[in-house]
Task: structure prediction
Amino acid sequence: MTQIFAHRGSAGTHPENTMQSFFEAEKVNADGIELDVQLSKDGEVVVIHDETLERTTNGKGFVKDFNLNELKKLDASYKFKTFLKKPTIPSLREVLEWLTGNGLLCNIELKNGVFPYPSLEEKVISLVREYQLEDRIIISSFNHYSIVYCYRLAPEIQIAPLYSEGLFMPWVYAKSIHAGAIHPKLRAAPDEIILSSMENGVAVRPYTVNKKDDMLRLFQINCSAIITDYPAKAIELRDGVS
Result:
C-alpha cells in the first residue's frame, strides 16, 4: 500500500514545519512526515523551509543570522492566524523527541543548497542516533553531495536524492550513490519511471502530490509513497481505492 508522507506536516491545513502541523499528521494516521532543516547562528538544527524568515514567520532576515532562542520567539503561524496557541519554529531535537512516542517515519530534507551549513550532516546524524531513530529516518536533499556524505557517515540511515527534472534511469543513479529511494518532483515521475524504479528495488516518493487525480493515479500503480500537503485527503482516497 502506498505510504502517505505529510509534507512539512499537514501543510495544507496547518502552519508548515510546526509541531501543530506534525501533530495533525499523526492524528490523521499519516505514515510519515517530511520536514526541512537548517542551522541557526548558534549551530542548532532548526526546522524551517526557507533560508529567510519572511514567508512563514513574523521575522525578517536569514535563519542563519539568529540564535535558536531568538528564532523561538517568532510567530510561525503566518497565513493560519486562527490558532489559539502561537506556533513556533521547532528544533529538530524537539521533533525527534516527539517521534520516539509514535511510529511515524520521518523524511529530513537538508536545506543546504543556498548556504553550505558547516556540519549540518554531522549534527543531524548525531541527533538521529541519539534518539535511536536510524531505521525510521530518510535523509534527502537537492544537494546530492550532501546525502552521499551522509551515507558515508551513517550507512544505516536511508538517503534519497531530490530532483525536479527528468532523469534517465534514475534507479541506476540512485544505486550508484547507495540511495534506497528517489524523491522526484511529480512531473518528473511518469508511471513507467516509477514502475521501473520499484522493479529495480528503488522506492519512489514523488512530491508534492495534492490533486485528487494525481493521488489516484499513484495509488493505482501502488507507488511506494507520496509526499502531500493534505495527508487526511490522501488517506481517505487511498483507503477508498484499496
Q: What stands out?
A: Residues 3-240 form a domain with the TIM Barrel fold (CATH 3.20.20.190).
